[in-house]
Amino acid sequence: MTEAEWLSCSDPNAMLSFLRDREAGSERKLRLFGVACCRRIWNMMSDERSRAAVEVAEGYADGLADESTIQEARRISYATGTKVAVSSLSPAEAVAYLAADASCAATIHSAHLAAIWASREVLEALSYRETGDRAAAGSEPAIHCAVLRDIFSNPFRPVAFDPSWRTGTTVSLASHMYG
I need a labelling partner for 45 at 20 to 30 A (CA). Which of 3, 68, 73, 129 fits? Predict the structure, then answer.
C-alpha cells in the first residue's frame, strides 16, 4: 500500500492487513479500533452483557482489566447469542445477534483479529439493519477507514515526539484523561 492508497482507502480490511504486514499496529490501538467499531452500533446492542464486554475490551486496551477479566467478558458476551444462520432470524433479531457478535469480537485475545472481526460484524449489522441484505455495505467501510486513519495517523509520516512538548500542563492533562 502506498501513502496515497492509505489516504484514500475505503476498505478497512486492506488497511488492517497493511498495518499487520508492517507490524505498525500496536495491540492497544488495534483493540481500540475494534471498540470504536462496536461503539458505532452501541444502540443496537440490546443485551447489556454485550455493552459490558465492549467496556471491558476498552479497559483492557488501557491496562485497566486483566486477562481473566477479558476472558470472562468474552465468555459472557459469547453467551448472548447462539450461533445460528442469520438468514433464519428476523431483521431485528439478526441485527441484535450481529451486534452481540461484534462485542464478543472486541474481547478476543489477538487485538488484530479483534479489530478485523469487530469491523466485519459491525458492517454486517448496519447493512442488515438498513437493507436486510448482509452484502450491502453503504458508507460504513469508509467511516471505519477514517477511524483507522484517526487512530493510526499516517504510517508513512510518523510524528516524532519532541521532549519539549512534555510540559507540566500536558502531563497533568494526560494524567487526568487517563487517571
Answer: 68
Is residue 87 predicted with pLDDT exceeding 70?
Answer: no
Residue 131 has a pLDDT of 62
Measured over the CA atoms of residue 13, residue 118, residue 78 and residue 82, the dihedral's sign is negative
DSSP code of 109? S
Which H/E stretch holds residue 70?
helix 67-78
CA atoms of 49 and 52, how far apart (whole Å)? 5
**What is the rounded CA–CA span in Å between residue 12 and residue 26?**
16
Mean pLDDT value across residues 83-106: 77
Compute the distance between CA of residue 136 and CA of residue 151 in angstroms, rounded to an integer: 26
Q: What is the mean pLDDT of residues 3-22?
A: 94
Domain boundaries, the chain: 3-157
Residue type, 123: L
